Automatic annotation (TrEMBL):
Catalytic activity line of the entry: RNA(n) + a ribonucleoside 5'-triphosphate = RNA(n+1) + diphosphate
Limits of the DNA-directed RNA polymerase N-terminal domain: 413-723
EC main group: transferase
Name this polypeptide is given: DNA-directed RNA polymerase
An example Gene Ontology biological process: mitochondrial transcription
Sequence ranges of Basic residues compositional bias: 76-89
Length: 1253
């Protein structure tokens, strides 16, 4: 993210223009920057203005529009693309070439509006509408000025199509309008008017501007990684010549006033050179490059000064006056010397060299401990609490860790991460393999390795010959020379193996496959760099002590991050933790190259299922892989297909070992604590703190710009979850494996194997069939294939999960965690974790055990009944009593799970119920159940948590009561409340003679509309609600199918009406969220972003697809921040995303509070887990933190945040016409219009038994 600052004639032009040139300079853009517009001087060489947030602006290129009417231009024809080749053209593609001749831009004229005058709404829009004075015809509509419109001819065509789509979405159907208030209808018509007058946003960019920004940004990222890898390969001088050539070309282009986006503005490129020269002690070369950097107005960072000091320290003798000037310059730039030691890019040798320089001035200088403080209003009181004492019996746990060889486990984990892969014994390896087939398999693998070796060398040589060194283009050759050939061959061979055991009907999109393979090369490179830098040795040194701390109760006294920083300083074990990022384009190109080798050179050259190969083959028929185009959903995808003979052959060879990436498995030791947004998770392999699409970098840049003390609470809360040790519930696992190996069971929710699917084989297609019969048989065959493919996918997923669990059956393990873009926490391993299904949750236990205590057994009983979902309307005491009443069934389930009465199998969560039955049985049969050591996690689940947050934000008294925020003797079930209200409406309609209401008699049940109630909070539309209800009605055998469409439509309408009436204040908030997001993305042209109460910056990564040509290929990117936001997704997704960011804050605050009080804590979003003996304390902290969170004026804070980012300033009004002023007022007033809150007393949550239960 860059900001335009002051410019001089010596720098770069922005766009090719005959009449005017704009020169700009760059410096990093801070997260707090506000949108400010400055006028552009008439002097061609002195333009000073700033690009600001909101969101993706790299540079402002508006100056050329002041003379656009004097230019000439030929509009590009609009290209139409088939839906079978790419997505439907609702997204605007960016062309990479700019036409030389330009014509004046013809502005879009507003469409006539034939609707009736807008109604004056009673409250929500009244004042706003009066200010706007919207017209209803084009006669009174002022036309847009030339200076304010930036659309070219191509964009206008696309905008017309896009407006049509947006109006369809924003202007609701007649059915949906039944549920809209006058306010909703008024706002929809206001937005509709804005679209039709083409006043879509006030901060506009043309296609060529966006293309320029995207290509410039991608070029600088590519250059950074190209330089880094080239230097690693020992080609420092060669890549320095490339940089000099780029800078020389840059200066030449400026002198003749020609544009090129290929100019260097990335300070990290220079820093990479600085550290390379520092490693060699070459101060002269470093000084020359530093001067050149200043010449081109690139501002140094703290890393730049650290590299210079490091270079001085690497010299036997150095001039102390140089060091003094560097330190003075550093401080003049606003940096502090002590902050150098907080940088992630310095290893222990760099620190020693810098310390050597600093001690020449201050011999007593000592390295400060890296700060671990947290500065947040909501968390300060938690960090100030006195930690529990070790003598406290409530946290004295059996020393399970004394039986574990942690040093050996650390070595195993490091070895796994160095190898990048780990092999796991498959639980399906029961079949014996024919020795002849096994021999053919070995010959096939050997031949495959040979073909890949020859193919890789051939294609690399071809690439080198076709690359012209003087063309200043950044190729991928250095990335293909990092390792030996056999390393790349090994990666390709393992990738091919994965496909040989895959599906014949589906693969991931080819682009996703290429990115995945490219990421493997990146991870291997990063791991290799860290090995050579001494990272592993220092890691071992720190981990020996860190593990001893984190597995004991000491972690509750000194948190993980604080302890790690203490150990690093004490042992002088500083490590270079920089992630050395590669660009999206390079990752994709590397993957495409390796897959290209596989596609072109892998041939079927050895016999597999037959003794001899067929001699005659058509060209291409013997390739192992093919490119095919499939339509798995709405759009056609480019996918990979394996030769049918190979798939058939491998189906006869059971996969005795499953190979997984190290990041797909739990860790054998406590994960690396999250120390910053780029350091944490696995030990050697890079783990992202926020999981985002590879090209969605905006949120990551926001995170990296924050001080650690601002997001320290977020890091510490994730570390709490990271530090929880787990073990396998062997009794349940053995039962599952037994059922799985016997073919699975639909009744017990264990996926069945393909051989056991019982799918009716369709009739074959024969000659002589009629057209209709042939079509029916083709559809039947396609349906059978689809069913088998889906069942096979489910079976494979369960195979992976159970095999991994079996692999760890005798181990203690940990789950590294990270965040999604909203702040919700997830385990990194995808196949086996506690966020999985009922089966996954049933086979894991806390490794740490605690005595049940006086109330623990009762809590286990209540938890058991909660899992069955049988007593959801009963009180806590009634649930405990019910467990006592059915104790005989509970013990029978524990003792004879498969050959008994199988009471557990009828539960809503059968396998967790069985595991709980076994735990209760063991506790009851122990000599003293209060002293029984339990490892079983007990859950406390929120009651429709999204609505709980909405009700708390709006202080909605009626809504709060329905979601258990208010104390009550019995739990309130919001689903049942809505069902009762819908049933009441149905009865009235039936009495009034409505036929469909009579037909639905007896069918309005909780299960039918529960999903609709739940997803309404996530922005589900009426159309989606009808589909959900339709599926439920079709599953009811007694309901007549011919009435399903009409009945689902009727129930969807009634459900929406009931929810609106029940949650009035909530709906106002949701409407305001939607209005704000729609206007921000539409008018400001920005993605919606905000900060959570714990200071986590969030940017919604929903953008329009852009297309950029690279080396003759089109690269499509749906997540580039240099594209227009997808305002439909931005608008619809913001309400649920904002609430999810709040529920993540609540979870994090509760996690920190529990850790501070010695309680084991794990979460599955709004389900909090702990030991049975600690449930009461967890409940207290959970409620306490919820009240603390919502006592903050969250809506007012959000409004101020939006205004600071998106509000139009008064100075901007003077430069626009009347229609744009109206639009500005609409945006500003909407952002200020905070919904009024109700009368609910928030403190009553503290006394609500069923808030979380």
């Amino acid at each position: 993210m860059l900001r335009v600052i002051y410019s001089r004639p010596v720098l770069f032009n922005t766009l090719i223009r005959k009449t005017r040139q704009l020169t700009v300079l760059y410096r990093p853009l801070s997260a707090e920057t506000l949108p400010i517009h400055h006028e552009i001087d008439d002097d061609h060489h002195h333009h000073r203005f700033e690009i600001a947030a909101p969101h993706y602006e790299l540079l402002e290129v508006l100056g050329h529009r002041s003379s656009q009417l004097q230019s000439t231009r030929t509009p590009r024809p609009t290209r139409s693309r088939s839906t079978n080749s790419r997505k439907k053209q609702s997204n605007s593609n960016i062309e990479s070439k700019t036409d030389q001749d330009e014509q004046p831009i013809k502005l879009a004229q507003p469409k006539p509006i034939t609707s009736q005058p807008l109604p004056i709404p009673p409250n929500r829009i009244t004042e706003l509408s009066q200010k706007l004075h919207l017209t209803t015809s084009t006669k009174n509509q002022p036309s847009l000025s030339t200076s304010s419109s930036l659309y070219d001819e191509t964009l206008l065509v696309e905008e017309e199509q896009d407006d049509h789509q947006m109006n369809e979405l924003l202007i609701s159907s007649p059915i949906e309008e039944l549920f809209f208030t006058d306010d909703d209808k008024a706002l929809n018509e206001l937005l509709s008017s804005l679209h039709s007058t083409r006043v879509r946003r006030m901060h506009k960019y043309t296609d060529e501007q966006l293309s320029f920004m995207h290509k410039h940004n991608e070029f600088n990222r590519m250059l950074q990684s190209y330089v880094d890898v080239s230097i690693y390969n020992g080609k420092l001088n060669k890549v320095r010549r490339l940089l000099d050539d780029l800078l020389s070309d840059q200066e030449k282009r400026h002198s003749v006033k020609r544009l090129s986006w290929r100019y260097v503005s990335n300070i990290h490129v220079y820093n990479t050179f600085f550290f390379a020269y520092a490693e060699k002690g070459n101060l002269v070369a470093l000084q020359k490059l530093f001067e050149k950097m200043r010449k081109y107005q690139v501002k140094p960072t703290l890393e730049s000064y650290a590299a210079v000091l490091c270079c001085l320290g690497n010299m036997d003798l150095f001039d102390s006056s140089i060091a003094r000037r560097i330190i003075l310059d550093l401080e003049n730039q606003g940096f502090r010397v002590v902050d150098i030691f907080n940088l992630d890019c310095l290893n222990h040798e760099d620190i020693q060299r810098i310390l050597k320089v600093l001690k020449t001035f201050r011999p007593d200088f000592d390295i400060p401990i890296r700060p671990s403080t947290v500065n947040n209003k909501l968390l300060n009181h938690i960090y100030k609490q006195q930690p529990p004492t070790i003598e406290d019996q409530s946290i004295q746990i059996e020393p399970w860790w004394k039986k574990v060889d942690l040093i050996s486990k650390l070595n195993d984990q490091i070895d796994v991460e160095i190898n990048q892969k780990a092999k796991v014994q498959s639980i399906n390896s029961l079949k014996t393999i024919d020795p002849k087939l096994l021999a053919r398999h070995d010959n096939f693998k050997t031949d495959l390795q040979n073909q890949l070796t020859l193919g890789f060398a051939t294609e690399l040589e071809v690439l080198k010959k076709t690359t012209i060194e003087k063309d200043l283009k950044l190729d991928i050759i250095p990335f293909l020379e990092i390792f030996d050939v056999h390393d790349y061959v090994d990666l390709m061979s393992k990738e091919a193996d994965r496909h040989f055991y895959g599906s014949d009907f589906y693969s991931l999109p080819f682009t996703s496959l290429c990115i995945g393979l490219g990421k493997q090369v990146y991870q291997k490179y990063l791991c290799t760099v860290r090995q050579k830098s001494g990272f592993i040795d220092k890691l071992r040194l720190v981990y020996n002590e860190y593990m001893s701390h984190v597995v004991t109760n000491d972690r509750f006294i000194v948190n993980e991050r604080e302890k790690w920083n203490e150990i690093v300083k004490d042992k002088f074990a500083y490590m270079d933790r920089s992630d050395r990022p590669w660009s999206y384009t390079q990752i994709l190109q590397i993957g495409e190259f390796l897959y290209g080798v596989m596609l072109k050179h892998l041939k079927l050259q050895v016999p597999l299922l037959t003794q001899k190969r067929q001699i005659e083959k058509k060209k291409g028929e013997d390739s192992l892989f093919y490119i095919v185009y499939r339509t798995p959903g709405k759009f056609t995808e480019k996918q990979l297909k394996v030769h049918p003979t190979v798939l058939h052959f491998f189906s006869h060879i059971p996969q005795t070992e499953l190979e997984f990436d190290c990041s797909e498995l739990p860790a054998l030791v406590p994960p690396l604590p999250w120390l910053s947004c780029s350091t944490g998770g696995y030990l050697l392999n890079h783990t992202d703190l926020v999981r985002l699409p590879f090209s969605a970098r905006e949120q990551d840049s926001r995170l990296r710009s924050l001080a650690i003390e601002k997001i320290g609470g977020v890091l510490d809360s994730v570390n709490v979850l990271n530090s929880c040790p787990w073990k396998i519930n062997k009794n349940v696992l053995d039962l599952l494996i037994d059922i799985f190996q016997r073919g699975g069971s639909r009744q017990l929710s264990v996926p069945v194997s393909v051989d056991n699917t019982n799918v009716v084989e369709p009739l074959p297609i024969e000659k002589g069939l009629s057209v209709d019969e042939r079509k029916r048989r083709e559809m039947a065959i396609a349906y059978a294939k689809k069913m088998k493919s889906e069942m096979f996918s489910l079976w494979c997923y369960e195979l992976y999960r159970l095999s991994i669990a079996n692999h760890f059956r005798d181990e203690i393990f940990w789950f590294p965690h990270n965040l999604d873009f909203r702040g919700r926490v997830y385990p990194v391993p995808p196949h086996f974790n506690h966020l999985g299904s009922d089966v996954a949750r049933s086979i894991i236990l806390f490794a740490e055990g605690k005595p049940l205590g006086p109330d623990g057994l009762r809590r286990l009983k209540i938890h058991l009944v909660n899992l069955t979902d049988l007593k959801k309307k009963s009180s806590i005491d009634e649930r405990a009593n019910y467990a006592d009443e059915i104790m005989d069934d509970i013990l029978d389930s524990a003792d004879r799970p498969l050959d008994g009465r199988q009471w557990w199998a009828k539960s809503e969560e059968p396998w967790q119920t069985l595991a709980c039955c076994m735990e209760i049985a063991r506790a009851l049969r122990s000599p003293d159940h209060t002293k029984y050591i339990s490892h079983f996690p007990v859950h406390q689940d929120g009651s429709c948590n999204v609505l709980q947050h909405y009700a708390a934000m709006g202080l909605d008294d009626k809504g709060a009561a329905s979601v258990n925020l208010k104390p009550s003797d019995l739990p309130q079930d919001v689903y049942s409340v809505v069902v009762d209200k819908v049933e009441q409406e149905r009865k009235q309609d039936a009495d009034n003679g409505v036929q469909i209401a009579k037909i639905l008699d007896g069918f309005v049940k909780r299960k039918v509309i529960k999903q609709t109630i739940m997803t309404t909070n996530y922005g589900v539309t009426l159309f989606g609600a009808k589909q959900q209800i339709s599926r439920q009605l079709r599953d009811i055998d007694l309901f007549p199918n011919e009435f399903v469409p009409e009945a689902s439509n009727y129930l969807a309408q009634k459900t929406f009406l009931s929810l609106r009436e029940l949650f009035r204040e909530t709906r106002k908030i949701q409407d305001w969220f939607t209005d704000c997001a729609g206007l921000i993305s539409r008018i400001r042209g920005s993605a919606v972003e905000w900060n959570t109460p714990l200071n986590l910056p969030i940017v919604q990564p929903y953008y329009r697809e852009i297309k950029i040509r690279q080396k003759g290929k089109d690269i499509y990117d749906n997540f580039s921040s240099f594209a227009r936001p997808n305002h439909i997704k931005q608008k619809n997704a913001f309400p649920p995303n904002f609430v999810h960011s709040l529920d993540s804050c609540h979870m994090m605050m509760t996690a920190l509070q529990c850790a501070r009080n010695g309680i084991t804590f794990v979460s599955v979003h709004d389900s909090f887990w702990t030991h049975a003996c600690d449930v009461d304390r967890l409940n207290h902290f959970c409620r306490e933190q919820f009240v603390s969170l919502h006592k903050e004026p969250l809506l007012e804070i959000l409004s101020r945040d939006f205004l600071s980012k998106y509000e139009f300033k008064s100075s901007e009004y003077a430069r626009v016409d009347d229609s744009q002023k109206q639009t500005m007022k609409l945006l500003n007033d909407t952002l200020r219009r905070v919904p009024q809150r109700g009368t609910f007393q928030l403190n009553s949550v503290l006394d609500s038994t069923y808030f979380f239960s």
